[in-house]
UniProtKB/TrEMBL annotation, chain A:
InterPro entries: Vps51 (IPR014812). Residues 107-134 form a coiled coil. Belongs to the VPS51 family. Residues 667-677 have a biased composition (Polar residues). One of its GO terms (cellular component) is cytosol. Its main location: Golgi. It is found in: Golgi apparatus, trans-Golgi network. Acts as component of the GARP complex that is involved in retrograde transport from early and late endosomes to the trans-Golgi network (TGN). Keywords: Coiled coil, Golgi apparatus, Lipid transport, Protein transport, Transport. This is Vacuolar protein sorting-associated protein 51 homolog.
From TrEMBL, chain B:
Residues 42-281 form the EIPR1-like beta-propeller domain. The keyword Coiled coil does not apply. Keywords: Repeat, WD repeat. InterPro entries: Beta-prop_EIPR1-like (IPR059104), EIPR1 (IPR040323), WD40/YVTN_repeat-like_dom_sf (IPR015943), WD40_repeat_dom_sf (IPR036322), WD40_rpt (IPR001680). It holds the Pfam family Beta-prop_EIPR1. Belongs to the WD repeat EIPR1 family. GO terms for biological process: protein ubiquitination. The keyword Hydrolase does not apply. This is EIPR1-like beta-propeller domain-containing protein.
Length: 809, 281
């Protein structure tokens, strides 16, 4: 029922409330707090301010919960609240009304204000129109003038340009003076289009002048490019400028390349000069160290310069690695050539070693350079290029290093070879020098001197070579490290070769001179035979020396070398490989054979000479019509003279043999006893029966053969042995010559006399008395056989003639 | 009886000789080494093989005896090869210093002889042997007497039937044309070796019939027979004897005066190709 009452009131109140709440809604929370505070004690009484407020429920709840007092109080509170709300509402209405009024007022005022505006606006329009018409008038009136001004301006610009062009030569000149080449180039390139367009007509002179200036600039720039004193950057800039000037940079590059090559040549010259400077071996030894080390450093320095130049070049022309590599290769080859040339010169081995070291330094420089060059190429192109191409780029470097190494190997090898050939030359020089010296002054002991000199040369030279190589090996150089083993092998081979060559050389010396001496061709060789024979003897003894002395020493030294090598290579494995490289036993054998051969050659030469003498003696006279012997024939003197020469030569060179007595007992004693018998037997035999005679002869012949075996015993390297062999051979020749002749009695007697004389004299010189005696007998037997009437001289006459001869000498 | 006994004597010696020589590599020693050939109680300086005798191995030798009668012996190796038999024995008027057999007729040979002052050279023909050994006379085909100095050797045309002969004396070289049927010999041409050279022997090149080598004191000279001019020489060779290799062209072997054998190549006359030392006289 309460609800029915409240329904009409409810509509009104609700509308009211909605209005209010819509008005206050921006601040809904601020309105309820007074009620909220009051009704907060009664939780359910809060809903009075919410939208879902139910007055009936609220009333019921209020009635149920609170007592009368509370209801009364609530009523009072409620009434006060309602009052407050009503006043608030009234105030709001008033305020709104005021606003409305003021708004109407403003609208009213606006209406009145707008009325005058129209006229003003028209006025404004009128004014603007007039301004515009005026400005149009001004515009039209100024138009002509403005055009003129613009034209003038253009002309002025043109004139300025022309001025610039006309000034260009002087300006360029100034720039040249100030060395502001960059500006100059900028000016010139700016002026280029004009020159291109009008250069042929109006600006001809100007163009020519500026071109001249530019030519100067180009020249200067080129100079700058080529000058080593400029910084690399400046040179690179210069090249850039030149490029801007349309200068053919390629030719420039080529030229620079040429320059580099030239530089290379200079380098060579320099190095050769430095080495030439040191070639004087006669310099005082005190200064020896200085010139030795000088070329190495000088060489290194110049190479460094070269490297620097190449680097600059690379900076200037970044695209020319190929050429550079080629150049560097060129450098390497040239270096090697230079080195080879140096090696060919007869330097001392120490110098050679120094040279080589210097060169190795150079090679290392080159390698570093090459690597750097290639690296730049790789860096420059590596990003863009595929890996394959990169590989291709890297390859040249590897090739270059290989190339350097290869060349180094060749050089070292050549060095070894040349060291040995140098050595050989020295030895042979020692030999021939001694010979030459002998020609000048007939010195007694010249042969001995020669022998000593050559001995020394052999030993000293070998030691020098070994020492040199040891030095070389001691130097810690990367390149050499690789080659160390090879070098050692080469040295071994070199020694082997050296001795073989020495042997050959000896042979050649003897063989060649043989031809030269006896010929009538060479005027120098008139006394050549004598010298040569001596030389052969020297060589014979030298061979023995090499066999017995030099080889062991070198072998010993070589072992030292090997030890060093072993300590480096750290393995004894290679030690076994040295065997075939240098075989001392083989060399010894060769030289023993050579020694014997030379000795034989010597004997042969001597004997031949004497044989010629003897042959002349026996072929010239007519023996069938020979006169009575009056004295010992002079050929005996000549014969003895020749023997004397042999004796002196032999004495100088060869060692003395064993005791003479020993040799005497050596020969067959039976020959001495039966020696005189054959002749007598023969003579008796002739008068005897045929058979007996034949038997005698047969025994004699048998003895002849038997004896022959003993006559020519093995030749030894002693004075006596050689001399005796010569005598024996000569006597045998004598016998042969006798057998070719037919004698009358006087001829036979002459020979008997000569032989008898020889018998006494040869006893003093010859060692093997028995054999000599026997041979002399043989001569007489042969003469008797070839004699028509073999009646010997009486012993007293013989003695008398011999005494006369002895007295004469 | 005497012949028989000497025959045995020869047999012994001969058996030794060829063997000894055949072991040596070159023919010249076998032929004319003056030392090694001395037979029995005769001394001989020369021996030559009979090239024309194709059926047997035969040699002829000549004795060198100053005081006795000299003989030429024809020796034949028995079919068994073990014994040497003296097939013929011919008396010769002088000491025989050199002897050479005709290459096309086994009965013809040449000798160089001298005795004392006199010297000469002749071509002989052996008479037919009718089983008798006792020195029949040799038939003189021709005597080569144009020489003015001591004759050294006679060379026959190397092979085949040809009428040419060369005789060498100390200074000259003679080329003869021999007519054996008419028994004459004529000098075809002659050349002097020069005053300074004393020729001692020579050899005819079997490969080049126009070339002859001759030995001097210290050189070997080569002659062209067509022009009789010296073509070549090997200097500084002390040569006792010389021969060509019958198989290989240009090869030459020489026996040295003192010792050793040298082998030469004519294309390289400067130095011997090979030296064989080891002989001492």
């Amino acid at each position: 029922m309460g609800a029915d009452d409240e329904v009409p009131m409810d509509d009104k109140a609700k509308r009211m409330r909605d209005l209010l709440s819509s008005f206050y809604s921006p601040d809904p929370s601020s309105a309820p707090p007074p009620t909220a505070n009051a009704s907060s004690r009664y939780a359910t009484l809060d809903t009075i301010n919410t939208t879902s407020f139910d007055p009936n429920q609220y009333m019921n709840l209020l009635v149920q919960k609170s007592n009368l007092e509370g209801l009364l109080q609530r009523h009072v509170e409620m009434a006060a609240e309602i009052k407050n709300l009503d006043t608030d509402l009234q105030m709001l209405v008033y305020e709104n009304y005021n606003k409305f009024i003021s708004a109407t007022d403003t609208i009213k005022r606006m209406k009145t204000n707008i009325v005058g505006m129209e006229a003003n606006m028209e006025q404004l329009l009128e004014k603007i129109m007039s301004v515009q018409s005026r400005s149009d008038g001004v515009n039209t009136s100024l138009f002509e003038k403005r055009e003129h001004v613009e034209k003038l301006h253009r002309t002025r610009n043109l004139l300025r340009k022309v001025q610039f062009i006309f000034d260009l030569p002087t300006r360029l000149g100034k720039c040249i003076k100030a060395e502001a080449y960059a500006d100059a180039v900028r000016f010139y390139t700016g002026a280029m289009p004009i020159f291109k367009a009008y250069g042929d007509s109006s600006f001809q002179d100007c163009k020519r002048a500026s071109e001249d200036a530019v030519a100067i600039i180009i020249k200067n720039l080129q100079g700058k490019v080529f000058s080593d004193s400029e910084s690399i950057q400046a040179r690179a800039e210069a090249v850039m400028l030149l490029k801007q000037l349309d200068f053919p940079v390629d030719t420039l590059r080529a030229k620079l390349l040429e320059n580099l090559e030239q530089f290379l040549l200079d380098l060579h010259l320099e190095s050769t000069e430095t080495t030439k400077g040191q070639v004087n071996p006669d310099e005082p030894p005190k200064q020896g160290n200085l010139p030795d080390s000088a070329p190495a450093t000088a060489h290194g320095a110049s190479t460094r310069e070269f490297v620097e130049a190449v680097r600059a070049y690379r900076a200037i022309f970044p695209d020319s690695e190929k050429q550079l590599i080629k150049l560097v290769q060129d450098l390497v080859t040239k270096h090697f050539e230079a080195i080879q040339q140096h090696i060919k010169k007869p330097l001392s081995s120490a110098d050679l070693v120094r040279m080589l070291l210097a060169w190795v330094i150079v090679a290392r420089h080159v390698m570093v350079l090459a690597r750097a060059a290639v690296l730049t190429v790789v860096n420059g192109s590596g990003i863009m290029w595929t890996d394959v191409l990169l590989m291709d780029e890297v390859l040249p470097e590897a090739a270059l290093v290989d190339f350097a190494l290869e060349a180094a190997r060749i050089t070292v090898k050549q060095f070894v070879a040349s060291a040995f050939s140098c050595h050989l030359l020295k030895v042979s020089d020692a030999l021939t020098n001694a010979e030459a010296r002998k020609k000048d002054e007939v010195e007694e002991y010249s042969l001995q001197v020669a022998l000593e000199a050559s001995k020394r040369a052999v030993i000293q030279g070998s030691m020098d070579v070994l020492l040199g190589f040891r030095q070389l090996l001691d130097e810690d150089l990367g390149l050499l490290m690789k080659l160390r083993d090879l070098i050692i092998d080469w040295v071994q081979e070199g020694f082997q070769d050296f001795f073989r060559k020495l042997d050959n050389h000896f042979l050649l010396l003897s063989g060649k001179k043989c031809r030269a001496t006896q010929g009538q061709v060479s005027e120098e060789r008139i006394q050549g035979e004598k010298i040569l024979a001596g030389l052969v003897l020297v060589m014979a003894q030298l061979s023995v020396f090499v066999e017995q002395n030099a080889i062991p020493r070198i072998t010993e030294a070589r072992f030292h070398l090997n030890e060093i090598a072993a300590s480096f290579s750290g393995g004894g494995v290679r030690g076994y490989e040295y065997g075939p490289a240098f075989v001392p036993a083989e060399i010894c054998r060769t030289f023993r054979a050579a020694g014997e051969k030379f000795l034989h050659l010597y004997i042969n030469m001597r004997t031949q000479k004497i044989s010629v003498l003897l042959r002349k003696r026996f072929t010239t006279p007519n023996w069938v019509k020979h006169k009575e012997p009056r004295e010992v024939h002079m050929f005996v003197d000549l014969f003895l003279q020749e023997l004397e020469v042999v004796a002196t030569e032999v004495k100088q060179i060869l060692p003395q043999g064993l005791q003479r007595k020993h040799h005497r007992t050596d020969s067959n004693g039976s020959t001495t006893s039966s020696r005189s018998n054959p002749l007598r037997d023969d003579k008796i035999g002739r008068s005897n029966t045929h058979r007996a005679r034949s038997q005698l002869l047969e025994t004699h012949l048998a003895k002849l053969f038997k004896q022959k075996m003993e006559i020519f015993t093995k030749v030894e390297h002693t004075q006596e042995s050689v001399l005796t062999t010569v005598i024996k051979l000569c006597l045998k020749s004598l016998q042969e010559f006798v057998r070719l002749q037919t004698f009358n009695r006087s001829g036979f007697q002459q020979i008997q006399l000569d032989i008898q004389f020889l018998r006494t004299t040869l006893k003093e010189t010859a060692d093997d008395e028995a054999a000599v005696d026997f041979l002399l007998d043989e001569v007489i037997v042969a003469a008797a056989e070839r004699c028509l009437d073999p009646i010997p001289l009486e012993q007293p006459i013989l003695d008398k003639l011999i005494q006369a001869k002895l007295a004469k000498t | 009886m005497q012949g028989g006994s000497t025959g045995i004597g020869y047999g012994l010696k001969y058996q030794v000789k060829p063997r000894k020589t055949s072991t040596r590599p070159y023919k010249i020693l076998q032929i004319r080494n003056p030392n090694s050939v001395s037979i029995s109680y005769f001394q001989a300086r020369c021996i030559a093989d009979v090239k024309a005798d194709t059926d047997h191995t035969s040699f002829i030798t000549g004795t060198l005896s100053l005081k006795e009668e000299n003989e030429v012996h024809l020796i034949r190796l028995s079919s068994g090869g073990t014994e040497l038999v003296c097939e013929g024995l011919f008396s010769h008027p002088n000491e025989i210093w050199d002897l050479a057999s005709c290459p096309f007729d086994q009965r013809i040979f040449s000798t160089v002889f001298s005795s004392g002052d006199s010297y000469g050279a002749a071509v002989w023909q052996m008479p037919e042997l009718y089983g008798q050994l006792n020195s029949p006379q040799l038939e003189r085909v021709a005597s080569l007497d144009a020489h003015s100095s001591k004759i050294k050797s006679i060379l026959w045309w190397p092979s085949g039937k040809h009428d040419k002969l060369i005789s060498i004396d100390e200074q000259n070289l003679f080329l003869w044309s021999l007519d054996s049927s008419r028994k004459t010999a004529q000098v075809k041409s002659q050349e002097s070796a020069g005053m300074l050279h004393y020729l001692s022997g020579g050899a005819w090149d079997p490969h080049d019939v126009n070339s002859v080598a001759s030995t001097c004191e210290s050189s070997i000279q080569f002659w062209d027979l067509r022009t009789m001019m010296k073509t070549n020489s090997i200097e500084h060779a002390h040569v006792r004897n010389i021969d060509f290799d019958s198989k290989k062209k240009y090869m030459l072997v020489t026996a040295e005066d003192e010792f050793g054998i040298h082998i030469w190549d004519l294309r390289m006359p400067k130095a011997p190709v090979l030296e064989l030392p080891g002989h001492a006289h």
